[in-house]
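> tool_call: predict_assembly(chains=two)
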Amino acid sequence: MAHDIESLIAALPEVSFVTDPARVKNKSRDFYWYSPILRDALDDVRADVIALPATEAQVAATLAACHALRIPVTPRGAGTGNYGQAMPLAGGVVLDLSALTEIRFIRWGSARAQSGVRLLDLDDAARAAAGQEQRMHPSTLRNATLGGFVCGGSGGVGSVTWGGLRDRGNVLAARVLTMEAEPRILELRGDDVQKVIHAYGTTGVVTEVEIALAPAVEWIDAAVAFEDFAAAAAFGHALACQDALLKKLVTVLAAPIPQSFLRLLGERAGAGSHLVLTMIARESYEAFEAMLRAYRARLVHARAPDLIDGLLPIYEYAWNHTTLHALKVDRTITYHQTLHPAPDSVRTAVELHARFGDEVLQHLEFVRFDGTVACFGLPLIRFTTAERLREIEAIYDASGCPTFNPHTVTLEDGGMKRIDPVQLAFKRETDPLGLLNPGKMRAFHEPDYAPAARGVHLFAGGSGESTSRSTGTS
Amino acid sequence: MAHDIESLIAALPEVSFVTDPARVKNKSRDFYWYSPILRDALDDVRADVIALPATEAQVAATLAACHALRIPVTPRGAGTGNYGQAMPLAGGVVLDLSALTEIRFIRWGSARAQSGVRLLDLDDAARAAAGQEQRMHPSTLRNATLGGFVCGGSGGVGSVTWGGLRDRGNVLAARVLTMEAEPRILELRGDDVQKVIHAYGTTGVVTEVEIALAPAVEWIDAAVAFEDFAAAAAFGHALACQDALLKKLVTVLAAPIPQSFLRLLGERAGAGSHLVLTMIARESYEAFEAMLRAYRARLVHARAPDLIDGLLPIYEYAWNHTTLHALKVDRTITYHQTLHPAPDSVRTAVELHARFGDEVLQHLEFVRFDGTVACFGLPLIRFTTAERLREIEAIYDASGCPTFNPHTVTLEDGGMKRIDPVQLAFKRETDPLGLLNPGKMRAFHEPDYAPAARGVHLFAGGSGESTSRSTGTS
């Protein structure tokens, strides 16, 4: 489908556009190549043009012009997503929001900023202004934007204490532009923020986000080695369950992940060792050391974050960075996303570890989940065929660990976000023509779409009801 | 048994003593009269004299002199315990530590003070010096001392976020004087603090405590009404499970507790309503309001703590203050202590509510417990006979809710503290003659004592191993 890009550019003399093919290609992609399925499927996806608005007014003007010309618009932050969240399946405009970087306020307990602000910059500002920090961030802290995280992410470093973006009280408000002839500005607060969280920008363009902050903490990075995977997983779980130990990260990496893919960490762990990575508050570190003794754990790395020893900040070995490091070493690696629910998260992880051996390398991220301690599994998979990948997912599902499929671009097939009637109605209200990030919400684009029954979603639709206990999508 | 008090006073000219019978009687008791059993059993318990040392050196001198004269010593804070923790069963000296009030330091994340400091004063100092507050305190914040809380308490307001005193990282260190001819000073750190936490001062006299602090929060008191007890309990549980909602208290009070015993709160609730009391951080309050709407909950009270409207701070209606208010109205009321374990805490509470009707009025306190959300039950009981009280406890036990018996003075029969070999060895080391708070640790005083098997303890002995998963006491 050819879009009338020339008219668009002519209509918006104040907006910067990028038309250089190499830059357009670059801004049309994210880390979709984590998945061999998406790598094949999305390699040709390309915007016709990149729009770089400098103000919210320019965003509104761009949306109005695109609406008039029926040009699809796919909003984008830094492009650090892993499933093509911000890739323009129907071409048209990629709306790069990275120039909207104003911080509106930093108060005690909360901050509000434009969606293009880099998370690291917001973190620095929160520390400088008020001794605070973001409750959570992805492992891509140094690159990702606030809006990209909220609209495309789910949680990350900090979720072991604060839960995810899904949880009431983490994302406090969002300012949203609708995709209409005359775009409206909506202020979503309270449970209404669910209508845009992890919706890939399909339900409006988020221009500002208000988030809760936590008091700043002096974190100490640490890595602990075990000779036995079950012992590492049990320690990770026990650490995550320590309610009085202030922590921001509890990651379990089965051997040979450290040795094969995380060079310096692997050397420190030694051959065959499984690692637990963590960030512990200085005031909790002595209690952490007591726990190491009680568990006969071997500390192989510990440092304040300002020390330089060749290692990255520990969070850059965790969450989706683990996969990134592996892919840098071995392009045949891919991954999977699952939830090991409480209270059996360790048991299922140990069983699946034993079952798959070297084909599926366990990577666990402990989180607070609806008042319990659970863990997400982000195992590294030695990819052979798409069929085998589906078999692995089916085995996980059968083991009680639901799949959040990272090898699909649609919200429904990904499975994190429940597209309920409230969500769908909101989509119809904010984007009646379906021009925002088209192809990502099946329930909107496919009139006869009937979602498969699903036990667990991470994100509500618009209703704000707890999702993980729901048993369907309608 | 007659103790040579005259010689003791003569040997310690620098130490203040109280011998006035009325004051000695007053300083020999606590809130043991919460229990009709203890009221009968302990009414005649009396020290021979109250010692009021002004310095740690005077404490040491008092211990040495008492050791030489074989006079029992029972350390005491403000006497806000409920089970005779600090009542001198064998007479002798009550060692009132309330003059030891020096604050050693307040740092970011921790504070250290002498054990006689009042918790409210420590809280005020932490706020003033560094914008911090204690992670948890009993409902007796305004009276209780730091040492009394750590040695006689278990948790309280704040435990819904930080767990209890039992949890690694809440109590960081304790300075302990031994009961020997020449008292030694021990600095217990890490898991070794378990040797004195909730040990009633039987294992040494704690003169200083180091605790973790949390950043100060602007709390908003709130009370929410429901017409149905199950709905109130479910809301309390859901609120406690909100990982992203910063809170310090989640209390459920079945009708007619508010109406019969908590005058103003009961009036606001209205006849027949069940209440959930909570303290919510200002930055989480909007998310809390969203939750109220989602649960169709009726807010009957909300205020910042500095407003004056005749109501006490909300925490003074919770924890053991609920029982206190009831006893002020009706002296036939007593109570029970139990744990409603995760994940069935609401189910067991609702079942027991239906089973007992007006005889046992449900009072739940939600807490973090080993990484889960559970609740303690502190139900109000319309007392008839000791036999019936035991029957009620047995019904609770059979329902999966273990009893922490508040109608006994011994650690073992109370059941919170596991007296393991490490703990017992530490007792023999610090108090070889058994002069410290005699009669409270059966395993020490009764050579043939064989503890009953018990599924749950709150406090480790000295070993620091997780106690709630242990299945025995030896």
